[in-house]
Design a protein that fits this description.
It is a single chain. By secondary structure, the protein is an alpha+beta fold. 15% of the residues lie in helices and 33% in strands. The longest helix is centred in the first third of the chain and has 9 residues. The two termini are 19 Å apart.
């Protein structure tokens, strides 16, 4: 499991789109609630499904 926590407006949401759709946009908007995406990877002949959750970024520190 990987958790990325940082300030709002630093393009954390672009990690999701870059990894799952191979896209990046400087004009992306802040996450309003929750976004979810998945990608299947072949690792040593086994298929691994990676799930990425993008939350609003207002979690308590």
């Amino acid at each position: 499991m990987v958790v990325v926590i940082y300030d709002s407006n630093v393009f954390k949401s672009n990690l999701l789109t870059r990894f799952t759709r191979d896209e990046f946009s400087l004009e992306s908007k802040s996450t309003i609630s929750v976004e979810f995406a998945a990608r299947s990877l072949d690792v040593d002949g086994k298929v691994i499904k990676a799930q990425i959750w993008d939350t609003v970024g207002q979690e308590k520190k």
